[in-house]
Amino acid sequence: MSPVEEFDVVVIGGGPGGSMAATLLSDAGKRVVLFESAKFPRYHIGESLLSGTADLMKRIGVLETLENDGYIKKYGVEWVWGEQREPWKVYFKDALAMPYDYGYQVERSSFDELLLNNAREHGVDAREEHRVADFAIADDGTVTVDYEATAEGRRGRVTARWIVDASGQGGLVTKRLHEQQWDTSLQNMAIWSYWRGADRGEGLDRGNTFLPTFSDGWWWFIPLRDDITSIGAVVDRQAFNENKGIGLEAYYKECLEKTPEIAARLEGAEQVDTVRVQRDWSYIYDKFAGDGYIAVGDAACFIDPLFSTGVHLAMLSGFLAAATVNTVLDKPELDRARVLEFYENAYRKEFARLRAQVYFLYSGHGSSKDSYFWHARSQFDVPGLAPEKAFISLIAGAFTHRSWYRRYLERLDVPEELRGTIEGIFEGKSTGVGVDVETPLTAGSAVIVDDLAIDGAYLREARSLSTPDGAVVPLSPALEALLAGADGHRTGTQLIDLLVESGVSTPDQAQALVHEAVSYGFLTTAREAPDGVR
Ligand SMILES: Cc1cc2nc3c(=O)[nH]c(=O)nc-3n(C[C@H](O)[C@H](O)[C@H](O)COP(=O)(O)OP(=O)(O)OC[C@H]3O[C@@H](n4cnc5c(N)ncnc54)[C@H](O)[C@@H]3O)c2cc1C
Question: Domain residues of the chain, as ranges?
């Protein structure tokens, strides 16, 4: 056995979740070792990304590389879903306050290798063909990880202060420490292959994902580089079991014949790979993090690929996990359990609302695109949000935590159009509830909650305001001054003047804030009986 080496953090797994977390931890000065059992490039399914993922890629400096390497840009998604077989399209540009209006379609072999090499450039000691065989977490918090360097036929051990479990569906740490809760209503099978020369449509639509349903399930059609298209069916487990006797190739062809929209796109195209199969059963562990470890990506939870959210969730949780681990290791003054709970809640919330939307589309409720849009609206805390915008935001990966949107306004490099979009949302909402700035206003029903917020590489204490229906906004000094001034006598206009005179806001900010506070119910007209801020 090689001598024991010492690190701050051990990351198990070099998929998107592991590379994201490792890169950001290393950026924050941690000594990070990452063990990956495979030799890259290695095959992996999960090729369609979201526009929200582009922002995460920008954070670790790989977005430009994707652009230069010619990965296919995905501007939207086309569906044949619902009672009508009329196709309908949605475009990421119509999502709520997202900085990019496109995602990418990626061959995972090269994409994952790019992320892993990028982690190395950021100082991560990333070791391929190193399989983690065992781990232990001592009472004093030290973690020990045993690995096998498979190509060298050697074993080794490292110690560290924390483990990031990014081992994918294998869930090396979570499987041992926690209960894996299978979702019995989402237990499908995926069968797929690759084609050259499929018809991908015109213009910007050439990069779209296409998702038509058929009698046994639904198809994904994902355009990749070099004129290759990934075409796979997600089928009901029972239908798969009943048909697998005829052979995988034959069943795949039969499914194609049952779907005229896909068959039409394959006229003159050539199948260039065998048919592959994988089960895609959804699950979630009962806990994602504890003393000495945190799980990201599929090691924590996995959701049916209907919305192509796996890589996005892996990278988003990698980002959240890095801030969480940095905080636990460097800020002992913050209660550890609370910090871990922040991570757990944030990741679970993203997972839960996507799963709710997947259930809704599978259950056939309403069976029209409008019903899908309206359901998505209930997944956001943003009053007055147009249903279609809510649906697109959800499948674009818009993060529900409002500090995410705020961040863009606070950053100096926010493009003007984006600033306008975000401010426009606040103003747009206010028109929906009819704010009359000449009416006396008073504080509405809201409670102040102690919260944590992401601040650079760390989490910090932050207070938020929460309404009974669950809307949460950060309690800024300006909002605090506004609520204190809303005594039931001052009108909206007078409150705006008060904020400006006291120097906490510019006139534009004060106006937007009053509108926002009214639309969220933090301020109500003095005629309504308020409970007051407690
Ligand atoms: C049929 C199907 C279709 C999908 N389609 C999409 C899609 O279109 N878009 C999308 O975003 N997602 C899709 N997904 C989901 C996506 O594949 C995953 O959610 C995503 O890859 C999760 O990333 P991760 O980093 O958590 O894990 P992974 O990408 O699985 O990476 C885990 C890594 O850990 C390594 N590892 C495992 N055990 C060990 C060990 N003991 N020691 C060292 N290394 C280890 C593995 O070799 C692997 O490289 C799909 C999934 C399925 C099943």
Answer: 5-179+282-396, 181-281, 434-525
Pick the closest to residue 293 from 341, 340, 327, 332 (CA basis). Answer: 340
Give the residue, by CA position, lying nearest to ligand 1 atom 29: 15
Return all residues near 26 (Cβ < 8 A) that are at least 6 apart: 32, 119, 122, 123, 124
Q: Note if the bond before 41 is cis, omega within 30 degrees.
A: yes
CB-based contact 154:2 (threshold 8 Å): yes
Give strand pairing partners of 340.
none
Write out 12-24 in H/E/C secondary structure. Answer: ECCCHHHHHHHHH
Nearest by Cα to 273 from 311, 230, 238: 230
Tokens of 388: 């279609």
Query: How many Å apart are CA 99 and CA 95, to the nearest integer?
Result: 10
Reported ipTM: 0.99
pLDDT tens for 390-431 read 899 889 987 654 444 444 444 434 445 555 555 554 443 333
Tens digits of residue pLDDT in 430-463: 333 345 678 888 888 778 877 888 888 999 888 8
Which of 36, 5, 6 has the alpha carbon at shortest distance from 18?
A: 36
Residue 397 near residue 52 (C-beta atoms within 8 A): yes
CATH code of the region 5-179+282-396? 3.50.50.60
What is the C-alpha to C-alpha distance for residues 380 and 253, in angstroms, rounded to an integer?
A: 40
Ligand 1 site: residues with CB under 6 angstroms?
12-18, 35-38, 44-49, 131-132, 166-168, 170, 172, 190, 278, 280, 297-299, 305, 308-312, 314
Question: Taking the CB of residue 497, how many other CB atoms lie within 10 A of it?
Answer: 15
User: Does 434-525 carry CATH code 3.30.390.160?
Assistant: yes
β-pairing verdict for 270-271 and 276-285: unpaired
